[in-house]
Amino acid sequence: MPARAKTLKRARQRKVAPIRLRKPASRRFAERFSLEFFADQIAAAIVVIDDRGKVVFANAKAYGLLRLAPSAVLDEPPSGLIRICYDRARQRAPQGEPLVFENYFAGRWFEVQAYRIGQDLPSQGGPYLLISLADISDRKRREFDTLENMAGLEEATRIAQMGTFRIDHTTHEIQWSPHMYILHGVTPERFRPTLNAYAALVYPEDREIVARNMALEGASYEGGFQYRIVKPDGALRWVNLDRRVLFDTDGEPYGVFGTVQDITETKQREQELQRLLRRNAILYEALEASPIGVGVLSAEDEKPQFIYVNTAFQETTLHSVDTLNPRGIVSLAAGPGSSEWQQVNGAIESSQSLSIELDCVRSDGAVFPALIEIAPVRDHPGKPASAFVINVRDLTADRQRAAVFLQSQKMEALGQLSGGVAHEINNLLQPVIALSDLGRDAVTADPPRAARYLQVIGNSGRKARDIVRQVLTFARRDSPQLGEFELVPLVEDAINLAHKGVPPGMEIVFSVEGRGFKAVCSPTQVSQVVLNLIRNAVDAMNGIGTVEVALRRREILESGEQIKGLDPGTWFELSVKDHGCGIDETTRARVFEPFFTTKPVGKGTGLGLSVVYSIVTGWGGTVEIDSQVDVGTRVMLYIPEAGSDSEQKPLEHAEGN
Fold it and tell me: pTM for the whole thing?
């Protein structure tokens, strides 16, 4: 059997790819070395190239790598990856020692080993270059993953401001990661990590805890703790150290491995959180101690719900959060459909502030007068409120005190009037007494004269009766009832009464522009208001001069000059003007405050103008003051016309301050 046929037969029996020797040089190589079987068992691709630069041998792995048939490879110059490796190794492969390098080709990594062989066999066609290519793509991928993980770990420790360390207590060797130096503000060139050197970087008060946890004796095997370090530039930083004790093969501890992380920002946030918690606790205690009822109404739900009410709120309303919800603030409404409660609902729906007096109902059904103040809480300016602060104050005691103040103010005015009233009544009683004595003799002797005497007696008696009636009306304690009254006679009566108490050098003039001044008011309160204003005017002019009282109709137009607190419509302007000392802007801003006065001690209570303001606003009107220092003062009362569109609903029990 020919040699070629025998070779093919043996290859089929071994189930390996036969070596096809098509040319004499390749046949001589195969017969000389008989490598085909062994080469096919190797996982690497093997190629042998002769000194002509042609492939004389390739194993099955090489054919698979090149994706070529043996006929296209053998006795041909190398191609593809083999060519790249051949060109690189031809000049650099040393005799007897392999040239090893890695090469990336077509998406795969290969480890290339090149050998020069057969230089001592020139008769056999040598020398030859043997090239071995092993696919190391999986290994390189793992290496790259490892490098990437290491780079990622280093980047993660940098971002997390974390460093790692290792202490070997047997060799006293300490290893630091690069970021440990950065974290402590030192450099490897200028700082050698030792336990003593590191202690110098630790805040003095924390050195003991650090030394205790770095030691092996008495230390727990795992755990962490926090301490402070001081950088060379003086910066104080908080760090967290987590460490694990290292053990040798005999189970004996020999060192410590751990991480150190800068937690300064976290510590500052924790401290800030603690400050906020303490401040919130103080605010909570302050709210609980407040004498004013305070509630918080959340607007996050479709129907605003109470989420907090303080102790005063509960004591005032007898309501808790549970009894107020789910109805919310409507649970306090004595008359949910009233105009005042409509204003409350409107303020909440539109996220507006509101201060209003109205009637509230306690959980037991009792109704009480209250002042409700609403303040919206916004997350961002211009946005709807996310919550509301609701203040509730019981006005029952305030109104009782106001009634006492009003009565005491009346008594003060009566005290000032008493001298003039007594003198006036005495003047009236003198003709009564004298003429009654004369009248006894004249009844029979001179009847016409007796009739004149009796007429004078009657007139004097009626005048005395009117004076006493005015004083009694003014001093009456009952609550004033508002109604529709003609202003002119009420003002005239008040002026007549005021005349009794003014000094001789004072004059009071009253002017009226127009007719028909039916207003919403109380006759008793009109007298009180006019007397207060005239008395202030007399004091301002030191008892000498003219007090001008004027009454006129005033139209407030939507497009014209506006007066704060007044709706457009018809109003009556009742003014009292003096030419006294006047007041400055600072004083004018406070004149309506209860008990505020510019008079010397003992000359006034400070209730005059505050009472005037309370009374007039109770009618649904308002009070304005125009004053200049050393020129004089004009106080203007705006009173609603009865039955007009400008008439506003007065506050009940408006005598409160």
Answer: 0.43
